[in-house]
Structures are given as structure tokens and as C-alpha cells.
Design goal:
Rossmann fold; 2 domains; 7-stranded parallel sheet; 5-stranded parallel sheet; 14 strands; elongated
Length: 359
């Protein structure tokens, strides 16, 4: 059975390019194209697509308004097609909050040399979306105030000790919301957190700023050569791998523009391997929802170096690929639902904080 895809975009050129890209895949077929959500609404009823690709900014009805109605009335996998602009990144992040599975940037029609790589990326995201777990969700308000963090969670015994421990997180498809759910539960004195989320350049800064407005901790896009501090989270920028390094007694961030690893830059494996090398037993690894296998071998390296690791369970993942691979190779100590993971990670840190190793 082929994956049935409906393309919604107000640009005739983009519709044509997307139709050609998707139609070239042996396991996919384009069942319709629509220039706006009004026409798309009727085509959804007629064609019953498996995946919808949806432009962010369109006439007659905004892409976000259409997505909100779609997820409430007829939930289905949606991949947003976004422009690389500040406004585009903000709207795309809002779309992910509303329930979109993933997003792709609009193709650069003039740059033919990279079209095969772009084609592969779109095809991978549509395949992952077709298998994604789409659940009804409460629609978040875009201007939500600082999160309360839900039920009280274990506190660190001594905030000064938490600087020796680190939380290292990797995620991909569905990860923006999973990371948000994890970070809003973190107390202001939690250990420093390093995060690699597969996301292109131009989106990671907006993602970090959005989280910073929601969380008790400080969240920023990693700049490199900065000390990792308690109560702070550092997100890999879309253009570089993020690594953990040591400088004397301090943990530091380092950016690396080396080639992609597992087809990704930033790569979760790069971050996890660096944590294994210089943090060892002081690190707690977390792998969240995502397609592919990036992070699996790196998490195993962390475990072999003495880190304690957690993987998100299948039931709470949008796409179970990355956690499944990490579990399969033996990298995870515990497998938990996303909702339970922040509390369990903090409990583990509270239990072991007083015995944090000095390196």
C-alpha cells in the first residue's frame, strides 16, 4: 500500500515541485493538490490521505487556523512546509504545538545540486509521519505564562552538588513538544542540560527562546565555549554539532561544524559520545521520540562509561524509532512514558547527587 499524500500550498511552483518529489517515491502517491485550506477540506473527504503537507502562510484561511480545526475534528499526520524566516520559524513551532508531526523548509528551487538530499529528507519525514501516533491534545495557548510544572517533583538535596551532574537529551520527530514537556518540569536548581534536537538552522534560536519563556530554568541556543551552569539548558544550533568538553574543573559547550553524522548535523550521537568521553558517571542520558537511529550507539557509549540512561516508551512517542534503537542495543537502563520521565530523572539525581563523582 502506498502512502497517500495531499499537498496544500498557495504557490503553484511549490505544489509542482512537491508533487514531483513525492511522486518520484515508489512507496508514495500524490492523491491531490490544493491552493488553500478551503479546497483542501473537500479533498480530504474525497481522498482520505495518509499524510498532509501544509503550507504555513496561505490566503482564505491561515495554515495554523486550519491545522487547529483539523486536529480537533479529523486528526491526521501533518508535515508543515515552512519558510526560513523569523516569522516562519515562530509559526512552525506553534504548528508543532498544535499537533503537526514535523516540518520541512521550502525547497530552494534555484539550487539544483542539493535537490536529491532535499528529496530524501522530505520522503523520510513523510514516511515517519505516516507511522506517527496522532493523539487528541489540549490546544495550548501561544501566550502561555511560565509553566507551573505540574505536581511537585523531587528537589536536589543541595543545589551546589547538581553542578557536577548533567542531563544530556536527544530527540527528533515529535521532539519539540517532548522536550518542552520535560523542561517545564525542571526546577530552577536542576543540573545543566545539553540538548540536540534535529532542526535546521534558523529554527533552533526561536525554539530556545520559546522554551525560555515557558520554563523555570534558562534555555538558550548554545553558542560554544560557555560554561554549563545549573538551571540552564543549551540547545544545539541547527548549523553545528553540540559537544560537551572539560576545561579544568568546568564543563563547557563546544560547537563543531564537521560533516553530518547519521545524516544529521546536529547529531545526537555526537553529543552523547562527547558526554561519555568527558562526563561518564556524572551524566544522565535521555532519548526521546524521533525517527531513525541517531543516538542509539552514543547512548550505549554513555552507559559503558557509567552514565544512567532513560528512553521514552513507545506509547508516548510520536515516532518510536530512536528510543527503540537505543533500547535494542542496550543503551537504556529504564524505559518510561514521557509524563513520568522528568520526575524519575529528578528522583535518580536526588538519590545519587550526594555521590556525584569528581573528575
Amino acid at each position: 500500500m502506498k502512502i497517500k499524500v495531499l499537498i496544500v500550498d498557495d504557490s503553484a511552483l511549490i505544489r509542482s515541485v512537491m508533487k514531483e518529489i513525492i511522486g518520484s517515491q515508489p512507496d508514495m502517491e500524490v492523491v491531490g493538490v490544493a491552493p488553500d485550506p478551503i479546497i483542501a477540506r473537500d479533498l480530504i473527504k474525497q481522498t482520505n490521505p495518509d499524510v498532509l503537507t501544509l503550507d504555513v502562510e496561505m490566503p482564505r484561511m491561515d495554515g495554523l487556523d486550519f491545522l487547529e480545526k483539523l486536529m480537533r475534528l479529523r486528526p491526521m499526520p501533518v508535515v508543515m512546509v515552512s519558510s526560513l524566516t523569523e516569522r516562519g520559524s515562530e509559526i512552525t513551532l506553534r504548528a508543532l504545538e498544535l499537533g503537526a508531526v514535523d516540518f520541512v523548509t521550502k525547497p530552494k528551487i534555484s539550487i539544483q545540486s542539493g535537490m536529491q538530499e532535499y528529496t530524501d529528507m522530505i520522503a523520510d519525514k513523510i514516511r515517519a509521519a505516516s507511522k506517527a501516533s496522532i493523539r487528541p491534545r489540549a490546544i495550548p495557548h501561544p501566550d502561555a505564562a511560565k509553566a507551573s510544572g505540574g505536581e511537585p517533583l523531587p528537589q536536589m538535596r543541595n543545589p551546589l552538588l547538581s553542578s557536577e551532574k548533567l542531563i544530556i537529551i536527544g530527540a527528533s520527530t515529535g521532539g519539540t513538544e517532548a522536550i518542552k514537556e520535560f523542561l517545564i518540569r525542571m526546577p530552577s536548581d536542576c543540573p545543566g542540560i545539553l540538548i540536540t534536537q534535529h532542526m535546521p538552522e534558523g529554527f533552533t534560536r526561536s525554539f530556545a527562546q520559546r522554551l525560555d519563556n515557558l520554563c523555570k530554568i534558562s534555555v538558550k541556543e548554545a553558542a560554544g565555549n560557555e560554561r554549563v551552569l545549573p538551571g540552564h539548558a543549551y540547545i544545539a544550533p541547527g548549523h553545528s554539532h553540540l559537544k560537551l568538553v572539560r576545561s579544568g574543573a568546568n564543563y563547557m559547550t563546544q560547537l563543531d561544524q564537521g560533516p553530518p553524522v547519521n545524516r544529521h548535523r546536529p547529531s545526537v550521537d555526537v553529543l552523547f559520545n562527547s558526554a561519555a568521553a568527558c562526563a561518564g558517571k556524572n551524566a544522565v542520558g535521555v532519548i526521546l521520540t524521533g525517527m531513525g537511529k541517531d543516538g542509539a550507539l552514543g547512548m550505549l557509549e554513555m552507559r559503558n562509561a557509567g552514565a544512567y540512561n532513560f528512553a521514552q516508551d513507545e506509547a508516548s512517542c510520536v515516532v518510536f524509532g530512536m528510543p527503540r534503537e537505543a533500547i535494542a542495543v542496550g543503551g537504556a537502563h529504564e524505559v518510561l512514558a514521557l509524563q513520568a520521565m522528568p520526575g524519575r530523572v529528578l528522583s535518580y539525581l536526588a538519590e545519587h547527587g550526594s555521590r556525584a563523582l569528581r573528575v
